[in-house]
Amino acid sequence: MTTNAKQHLEKLCGKLTLGSAIRSIRLCEEESQTAFAKKLKVSTQYLCDLEHNRKTVSAKKAKKFAEILGHSPEQFVALAIQDSLNHDGINMLVEVKAA
Fold first, then answer.
1. Are 66 and 77 in contact (CB under 8 A)?
2. First to last CA, the chain
3. How far apart are CA 19 and CA 52, in angstroms?
4. Residue 17 CA to chain centroid, in angstroms?
C-alpha cells in the first residue's frame, strides 16, 4: 500500500491500525469473528480485542496473520509496529518502502 493510498483510506475510515485492517478483511470475506479467529488460530475474544484496538500484536504474529490471509507481510508488520509505538506514546511514523 502506498503512502497516498493509506492517507486516503485514513481520511475515509479513520486511523488505520492492524486491528481495523483485519476487521475490514474479515467483513469483506463475510466471515464471523468465530470463523475468522479459527482461521488465524486465536480466540474469538482475542480477535475482538484486536479489531477494537484493545490489543497490539508482535511483528512475528502480524507476519503470520498476513501469510494466513494472503496479504502483504510488510504492511501487516508495519501496522503492528506502528500500533505498538502509538500504544506506548512514541510519536514516530513507520513507513514501508517499495523495493
1. yes
2. 12
3. 6
4. 5
- With b meaning 16 or more CB within 10 Å and e meaning fewer, what string describes 10-30? eeeeeebbbbbbbbeebeeee
Grid cell digits, residue 94: 513507520
Res 97: pLDDT: 81
C-alpha cell at 31: 466471515
pLDDT tens string for the chain (99 positions)? 555 666 666 666 667 899 999 999 999 999 999 999 999 999 999 999 999 999 999 999 999 999 999 999 999 999 999 999 999 999 999 988 866
pLDDT score of 17: 94
DSSP string, the chain: --HHHHHHHHHHHSS--HHHHHHHHHHHTT--HHHHHHHHTS-HHHHHHHHTTS----HHHHHHHHHHHTS-HHHHHHHHHHHHHHHTT------PPP-
